[in-house]
Amino acid sequence: MTLAAGDAPLAPDLYDYDFENDPVATLIRLRREDPVHWSRHGFWYLTRYDDCAMVLKDPVRFSSAAAGWGGGNPLAKPGAEAGGSDSERGLSRTLAQSFNQMDAPDHTRIRALVVSAFSRRSVEARRDRIAEVIGGLLDAAGAKGRFDLITDFAFHVPIIVASEIIGIPTDDRDAFRAAFELTGRLMAPKRSEEAWAEALEAGRWVGRYVRDLIAQRRDAPRDDLISALIAAEDERGALSDAELSSAISTIYTAAGTTIERMISSGLYLLLAHPDQWRALVADRALVGPAIEEILRFHHPTQSTSTNRRCTVDVALRGKTLKAGDTVRVGLGAANRDPDAFPDPERFDIRRQMAAPPLSFGVGPHFCMGAALARFEARLAIEAIADRWPGLTLVTTAPVKDPRRHDRYRELIVQAG
């Protein structure tokens, strides 16, 4: 929902499709009138750059451990506090074992085991394979002449790469991705019993699949991240079974689904600004700055972003965030804060930024997939610029997918 200044009350539904599809006016008003906003879903929602950065940098007052999603979500609190079914309590415990939902020293311990797979050196070593994946997808898409940037291209690149890094077999890739996507409903308030039950079943399926895959790698290790983590576990006792399973899901999110949205939306932004696309085609030195502007201008889920839980009462802009409250930092909103980015509603690949976008976070939980995301986006943009410098948009007014509010429903382009 988009609210004009003066409308009342200022109580947007941050999970509503209309808001996600067109959040700009609402976010502008929240930043101006209520930057520390108590959501109807039971969490504080922050929209100013300095506030969001402060929370992300402060693991003492704002804990990642067992940080929930607000009072409207049955999985918001761990263990018995979640109430509900055995499945809900089990999934709540599993989510709490994700190193993304931990503080030091556990977060530091587990992250250290996986971060090397996403270092700049490791990413560069995958250049040929990533280029091969991109080339094959573009060959097939180009044969159509008119194709969808999402379903024919950007959707597949990071999923293939992430699956290969982790060790998910090719034959299982689509089934795993589909089930994993369904579990995303568990991060939002319960909308219907049917949809919630479907998401719970998908979560159970993902859990069983990952446990079985870990067992297979224990018996027959391969050259993949699962085997490497098992070896580290065996050598140093570094990971419990629950931590290992949750780590794989966290890595899949960081290396897969989030990058897909960055590539498709980034290409749309460039093509929707044809003068800037032509400048990039003519001068490839603009690709790097263009990626940073894409990261700033478009964040796939403007509404909720990263969550934390207050460990103590915190005074912020005249309000008190109480110990135990969930706090969510609106990364997309922060990236368009005019106090950090002059003329923030203008997309400009030549922008000189005084502050870094918060798209990958900041502080101890900075996204470990950042280097991979930038690298895949660069290769994708350069490959399309090489093949089709005159690529044009057919879909000029895209809308978000009602099934997944964090991505566009389609982005049709014409090659040639």
Describe this structure in words.
With 416 residues, the protein is an alpha+beta fold. The protein has 17 helices and 12 strands. The chain has helices at 17-21, 24-33, 49-57, 86-96, 106-114, 120-125, 127-144, 150-154, 157-166, 173-182, 193-219, 225-236, 241-272, 274-282, 287-297, 331-334, 370-387; strands at 36-38, 44-46, 62-63, 146-148, 306-310, 314-316, 319-321, 326-329, 392-393, 400-401, 404-408, 412-414. The strands form 4 sheets. The protein has a 5-stranded mixed sheet. It has a 3-stranded antiparallel sheet with strand order 4-12-9. A two-stranded antiparallel ribbon has the order 6-7. Helix 10 packs across helix 11 (193-219), helix 11 (193-219) packs across helix 13 (241-272) and helix 13 crosses helix 15. The protein is globular, with a radius of gyration of 21 Å. It starts with 16 loop residues before the first helix and ends with a strand.
